[in-house]
Specification:
Layout lengths: L1 H23 L5 H7 L2 H20 L13 H17 L2 E7 L8 E4 L6 H8 L4 E5 L9 H8 L2 E2 L5 H16 L4 E4 L21 H4 L5 E7 L4 H4 L5 E11 L1 H7 L1 H18 L8
Parallel strand pairs: 1-7, 2-5, 2-6, 3-4, 3-5
Antiparallel strand pairs: 6-7
């Protein structure tokens, strides 16, 4: 929230300065009311300036340079910008359910909206690097930053490159550098089905290095577009289970995958039942 707080202070300071200037100009006191309500447009304007800075900054970031480990600085830039963005578009992220592990964990979740990962980064306090499709690294504004933050592209069309990406993500976990997230559906769900079948291979990221597996269900992220401006959107990250290595080793991979998929499917079917632990 640091960038948000600093910007809010700047907007209020600018608003106070504008109000005083109007008052000192000797015009009608009613114009002072105009100055008082100008803090919000100033706040939005400052966000626009920040976006321009990010665009120019991104031009100097080499997207072809390989990242060897996660970068907390660039990740912080992404997270703070998303918090600012969500404040402006009236999105609130709630993390609820089971407490997250203190040690590095491997998180699996459903994926229906472009806002899913934004909500994850904004809502989870500790760094969580996402395994993502390569096209996202070319995304306007954000692409250079998620690349330098250490997000891991996975080419689903090339088996060797896919295995290499899984090994890289596993090494991040094994070295304790960050948490890792992947969507086992393999792609964004654009169907009428609640959930696409999970791909077992993705679970090797966590199981190969004996990391806790966190099962997360994302709700309401797909409503942001519909609610934009008209009403506030509440996105929920439901932490349904934390499965320790001793538990999933006893289960076996196939049962771990079906169990995780079943938890998310049931949570989507049951609706808004979990109590908040924010």
């Amino acid at each position: 929230m640091l960038i948000v707080i600093v910007t809010l202070i700047l907007a209020l300071a600018g608003d106070a300065g504008l109000t005083y200037w109007i008052y000192a100009s000797g015009v009608s006191p009613w114009f002072c009311l105009l100055g008082i309500i100008m803090w919000l447009p100033l706040f939005i304007l400052l966000f626009g300036v920040w976006v321009i800075i990010l665009i120019l900054w991104g031009l100097f970031l080499d997207k072809k340079k390989a990242t060897e480990k996660p970068n907390h600085f660039y990740y912080g830039v992404i997270r703070q910008t998303l918090k600012w963005f969500f404040l402006l578009i009236r999105v609130k992220v709630h993390v609820r359910g089971k407490p997250l592990p203190k040690e590095p964990y491997f998180m699996v979740m459903n994926h229906r909206s472009n806002f899913d990962h934004m909500a994850l980064i904004a809502g989870i306090k500790k760094m969580i690097i996402c395994v993502t499709k390569p096209e996202n690294l070319d995304f306007p504004i954000a692409g250079p930053f998620i690349h330098h933050a250490g997000f891991i592209p996975i080419n689903r069309e090339n088996m060797n490159e896919g295995i290499e990406a899984i090994h890289k993500a596993s090494s991040y976990l094994e070295k304790g550098l960050c948490n890792i997230n992947i969507c086992p559906e393999g792609t964004r769900n654009k169907t009428e089905e609640l959930l696409l079948p999970f791909k077992p291979g993705s679970f090797h990221i966590g199981t190969d290095v004996k990391a806790p597996v966190v099962v997360c269900c994302v709700k309401n992220a797909d409503k942001v577009h519909k609610n934009f401006i008209r009403r506030k959107t509440h996105i929920y990250l439901d932490i349904l289970a934390v499965i320790e290595p001793s538990e999933y080793e006893e289960m076996g991979l196939a049962k771990l995958v079906s169990y995780s998929e079943g938890l998310i499917r049931r949570d989507l079917e049951e609706g808004d039942l979990l109590l908040s632990v924010d």
